[in-house]
Amino acid sequence: MKNLTSTVVKTASEIYKIMEKGSKNRSTAQTEMNADSSRSHSIFIIHIESEELIDGKECFKVGKLNLVDLAGSERQSKTKATGERLDEAKKINLSLSALSNVISALVDGKSSHIP
What we know:
Helices cover about 40% and strands about 25% of the residues. The protein is of the alpha+beta class. The strands form two sheets. Strands 1-2 form a two-stranded antiparallel sheet. Strands 3-4 form a two-stranded antiparallel sheet. The protein is flat and about 65 Å long. The two termini are about 20 Å apart.
């Protein structure tokens, strides 16, 4: 993925700072329907690891939390998007359609191929 970063943090406040930085890096633009419309998807993955001694043995616990914020689907007739905004809207809608195809294939139980 382009511009993917990984950071080790120790506290919740450090996680918040990283999330805030990621939020500031998101692409936004004004449309007729939204003055601050998200023009990008965002995925924030938190890996949580802990270690403790139980009866003299090291025990590890591992968890993973995926936070996904997708740019919204748009109707060009309502946003009145033109030029660059229209091109962005087409790509947003295409990527959401592709994701929908993946989810449908995963849940239908019949697909031999997941796109």
